[in-house]
User: Fold these one by one.
Assistant:
Number 1:
Amino acid sequence: MRNFYRIGSALAAALFLFAAAGIATAQDFPNKTVRIIVPYPPGGSAEAQARLLAQKLSETWGQPVIVESKPGAGTTIGAAYVASSPPDGYTLYLAGTTSHLPSAILFRKSIKYDALKSFAGVSLVASSPFILAVNPSVLPANSVKEYIDLAKAKPNTITYASSGNGAGPHLAGVLLQMLTGIKLVHVPFKGSAPATVALLGGQVQSQMADVSVLPQLEGGKLRALAVTSATRSPLIPNLPTIAESGVPGYDVTYLSAILAPAGTPKAIVDQINAAINKALTSPDVRQRFNAQGFEPTGSTPEALDQLLASEMVKYEKVIKESGMKID
């Protein structure tokens, strides 16, 4: 019995020292460069969002915060890199829920991480819809109804570009087909920027685009038909939703979040969370996010973990019922 108490006392002391070490580490954090990994090529809206956040975090911490792009394989390359990084808060991941979760489902047999268990939620960052856009010179659609009618008249002929296999825009196109019965041709690219270039050049007829396409829409080079979110975006309120355009129940909303590798001490997660939420309340951050088409959307780590779990259930259902596969 005496040995039992000795073991228990030793274990309690070890746990106390471990917790104390975590607090001390958090107090010193950060004392070197912090990296935000973006799973898309340079030039897209995600990178712009990450760079603005990095600037604010650097100002708060007095340490460099840099953005690194690690694109490819439906965002799984960037996710795998972060999941295998040391859980010390110095490697963070800008994840889009509509890419991170579906990609983990679709690439499940080839990846070595779990979209939920391999990461610690830190904070939501922003929300925005995708935009169904067409090149009017190659596809004469002025509305979602006309787009659907054209697709029904000529199945498997209308092309739509996305930022990659398994990414949010790919999912948005699959859901549109599932709910309307149309058949489109998916053309994946390594990011939103090259997909938009192809649309502008007429190599594809339409795109499930992110908000980085807004300048081309405003310039009249491309035509927006609708947003993919359940409600209209306050930033482009005149653009209808796909749901209100004759496809009830349609909703694919992009939510970006900062994740850390699983096992990152909670004290460090909380410290990063506080810095992110402070940045998101800054008037200049709100103005610049809004200009890029994003609504700043902070959260607690716990709320983010709950959201990711519920979104995973939703996308599992969509992928299973639609028969969505990697092209």
Number 2:
Amino acid sequence: MRRHYLDHASTSPLRPPVVTAMAKWLSEGTAADPGRVHHEGRVVRHVLEESREAIAAFLGTRPRQVVLTSGGTEAVHTAVWGATRRDPGGVVAVAPVEHSAVREASARWAALAELAVDAQGRVLADSVGDVLERARRAGQTVALVHCQYANHEVGTMQPVREIVARCREAGVLVHVDACAAVGQVPLDLDALDADLVSVTAHKMGGPSGVGALVVRRGLRLEPLFLGGAQERARRAGLEHVVGAVGFAAAAGALTPETIAAEERAARARTDALTAAAEAVPGVTRVGDGGLPNIACLELQGVEGEPVLLGLDQVGIAAHSGSSCASETLEPSPVLRAMGLDAERSLRLSVGWSTTDEDVAAFAAAFPDVVRRLRELAG
């Protein structure tokens, strides 16, 4: 049975140029610490910095601003740790639609102030001003404001530029989680002008285990990891060179023309998936559809987990915000914040390797899966 993978928003398969670049380095590369001054160390340092330059060019920023990490989660934690150490006792503003890594890291190290969202899961820019004013009246400072670039569950694009501008005017640090958006839509981080931006490679066809925190020029933060001066003393530990090589290869493959073509293809496929799903009574797409690769569905009369299992049995991989489908065993706070029942949701996400055959397979299977489950429910 041929499998049909519709869960690229969780992780995407390695792109062929990434496989080639990583395999070449693993088979032919030099085994050495890039921090050493001997010949082998200098060879590895050169490869590492070439990779950093490619990643930075792709993101629209300078190589010196790119701190390589083990992925988006570490990048988020590094941003929160640095901001809260810079302003001990300051509150952190966070919306309920942010990724769990953002919310939980913030709750560990600071008191939280909640940003409001609308029914599409969009952060209300005015709520940033409300949080700043409440903090001022309470004699508090705001250590950090979070605003994701786009939502990882429903694909809603956030008013990130407006929120960054408001935070810049107020002199408050702002962190943008761009992990869901990187590789899906063009990013120009210098133009965005955020203080901190977290990205990851594995959602855009790069390797898992590598990401980056992009730090605004001139900003100095206490590092999360200690014990070495790697990454210009911003992240201790031997660098993941083969991961950086793979990240750079993915960045190199995603030219502006490629991103534009993949964005068009992704939008056409998520629209087709949505049309097929909404042909079934009681199924509705949620979110604003801004991120081209994600279609999140609200299901009436059936829970998400058995739909996932039914689809899996016929060769289709998808995701749900339901508690049983989550590694945290809790329903999606994103959907709850939007006033939806997270237990009755289905997320379909496409990527560079998705084909029309994958879409057709879902369109053929989904109505029957839902019909049978509704019949069982009586």
Number 3:
Amino acid sequence: MADRFSREGIIRAKVNIEAGYVNNKNDLGGETIWGITKATALEYGYTGPMVSMPQSTALDIYVKLWWNKLYLDDILAINPLLADRLFDYAINAGRANAVESLQRLLNVLNNQETHYADIVVDKGMGPKTLTALKAFFAKRGAEGMNYLMMGLTGMQTYHYVDISEKRKANETFTYGWLGRIWGEMRTYAKALFG
């Protein structure tokens, strides 16, 4: 069995949360299985019936369309809990939202650019965002990573409240989204404090 905070462990933990086929009329994602929406399946190249998508295909989609695009192997090497946090945020609220939140936080945590330069908030993970993250970690260490994760969690929570206020049908999911974050926080606390 994979370590919970290894690449495989992180991906499998999210697939377990997202398990099963759903097609809820209130969900803008429409048909979804293993947390993969039909639009994402088509982006990957899967054209079969959503209800029949094998878990192995979903795992490959998570690797190619989330893990690799978010440079999570690099982030895993810096801090496994942060890799988990970004992966969860991205698959549940969108890659662009997760990266934008990380970029914004890095910019406001650089002490007016005395620790490292501001980065462009372009919602795309790349070398400049990774360089800023590494500089942040070099300056702030493990404590800083905990604060960064708290900031990401707060921004993810705000995202859910915001989209639920803007679209009443999202209220069907808001309680569950917040429960998901609460469960993740408990997992991180256990990993950090035993």
Number 4:
Amino acid sequence: MTRHLQKWHGAGNDFVVAVGEGESAHWNAALAVAVCDRHVGIGADGLLIADTANDQLTMTLYNADGSIAEMSGNGIRCLVAAYQRATGDTRRELAVQTLAGERTVTMALTGSTGVGSVTMGTVTLLAPLEGTLGVASVGNPHVVVLDNPDWSDADRERLAAEWAGQVGGANVEFVSPIDEGRVAIRVIERGVGWTLACGTGSCATAAVCYARGLTDRDIVVRNPGGELRVSFPADEAVLEGPVVHVADLEWFQE
């Protein structure tokens, strides 16, 4: 069976996207692992399923290891862009059902590129772990750490595993403050590993850094793959960033 797919990325955080009514019934963890494999599959940080059943748009996200993620700020922008490309729906605002609740995405798409923003909900600050700046939930869990230039990536991976293990699994953001309006981060994402960008991680970083007095409330977060903007116009975080269409694909699903 052939499945028609799209590949998109948001600041380098890349996804394979399947769009269609009842599309989620065609996928499972094993197929997600296969399609996300960077050597013998298409290659991606995750598989996004944009299911249009019951007159609503629902997002399911499989990480590259087949686990389910509750939310992705970059992923949901890519999902809406792929949905619009597939269906011709030109509405500027779309509601998307996710495991973290309903999220509203605003998209300005021109051809194969665009800029989108998404209401990410409340960032909940939790008790910090020893040696970290803080722990936060953005619908999924995050541990935010002040980076140390003396650490090797092997050190960071070991520390990330230890901290994530203390909260039952989490994304870990290594933060380097630049000034009051900007920080740089590197992220080890749960179920993925090192990634070029993390939208929920950028929101968690912004909330934790503001709470610790390191930055202003609204900041630019420099991810390795590009910049994302995080603002708090009310109690909820808003994430803004790019989307780029990479390819239309056919996946031969046995």
